[in-house]
Amino acid sequence: MPKQYSQWMAMWAICRATLRAIFKSPQAIFFSLFFPIVLIMVFGALTGGGGGAAYDIAFDAKSDTLNPIYFAIKSSPAFDIKEGSEESLIDRLKKGRISAMIEIKAPAAPGGPSEVHLKTTSANQRELPMIQTLLNSIIFQVSGGNLHQNLLAIIKVEEIPGRPYKMIDFYLPGMLGFSLIGSAVFGVAFVFFTLRETLVLKRMFATPVKKTYIVLGESIARVLFQLATAVVLIGFGTFFYGFTLAHGWMTFVELLVLSFLGVAVFMGFGFIISSLAKNQNVIPIYANLFMFPQYFLSGTFFPKTLLPQSMQPIINFLPLTALNDAMRKVSFEGLHLLGVGKEIIILIVWCLLVYSVLIKIFRWE
């Protein structure tokens, strides 16, 4: 009796063949590993940090709200005032999500100076000098430009325990997202277009292997390659530049889960592009139309808070934004996957939308 044909064995055979082809491809290795590693080395070698045009701060609930300095700080475009309970604000301060907490104390004696109590953490040391400069400027203006003759307020700084924030903690998740989106979109789009144009897909379809298993075999190979890339990039950043993994191996695994979700979404766009493209020359155009806006809007190379406030609602729902934000919250802030539920939901919604479109337009010939 002839042995029944195994679709799973066929799928794994396709997967292994695809993996070998990927690892033998200089382009795949360069854009997925070498190029991001070079960028990590460049950014990791830099010190300090670039703050945005507006610093996120919060007022202590005990602040003197009738003090003119309070109104001046609140109306300053240099500061974005955050609100919340004292417990939640302190927690956000320790995680580097706000730059400082400010308590404005009334003068100890009539006619005496007020005290601007600036509470910060080691996570925000790179922003502290600029915040102090801005506060001194505000005090000077409120004093009528006569600060030395009439000392209106003095600034006192208190540092509470917090996790040291390094530039690599911002840039490595961005470089990881950069690698995943580029390799997934370009890799899938070019490969499936080539397989279709050379009639390889048609020949595969003529074999006993079902369509689903052909696509699964190719997709699993690319997912494994992308996860291997993520492992290398995270390991490189951790061992050479001290990238923060808040909960050690647990955080590492959670970053891989997020990488998998991101790759699933980006591969879907790659499949769509391969189906829409009429020739290979238009694939880079379609791919870059999808990727380039996200490189510069999603907080890959610089904080997305630098962009106009009116753009933030759109920016926050881009798939690369969700991936970058989730990875930074998990790696540095120490949140677990349930803590980044909003970002995960955004990625899942994109996944459902992309593959719903793909089912309707995917072509074998």
Describe, in plain words, how this protein is organized in 3D.
It is built from 13 helices and five strands. The protein has 365 residues and is α/β, with parallel strands linked by helices. The protein has a five-stranded mixed beta sheet, with helices on both faces. Helix 1 (7-23) packs across helix 8 and helix 3 crosses helix 5 (128-142).
Q: What topology does this entry show?
A:
Blueprint lengths: L6 H17 L2 H20 L9 E5 L8 H8 L3 E4 L3 H9 L5 E6 L8 E8 L6 H15 L10 E8 L6 H31 L2 H7 L4 H31 L7 H28 L6 H15 L14 H4 L3 H13 L9 H21 L4
Parallel strand pairs: 1-2, 1-3, 4-5
Antiparallel strand pairs: 3-4
Short synopsis of the structure:
With 365 residues, the chain is an alpha/beta fold.
Categorize the overall geometry. elongated
Helix share, percent: 55-70%
Q: State the major sheet.
A: 5 strands, mixed
Number of H- or I-type helical stretches: 13
Give the H and E element order.
HHEHEHEEHEHHHHHHHH
Key phrases:
single chain; 365 residues; alpha/beta; five-stranded mixed sheet; 13 helices; 5 strands; elongated
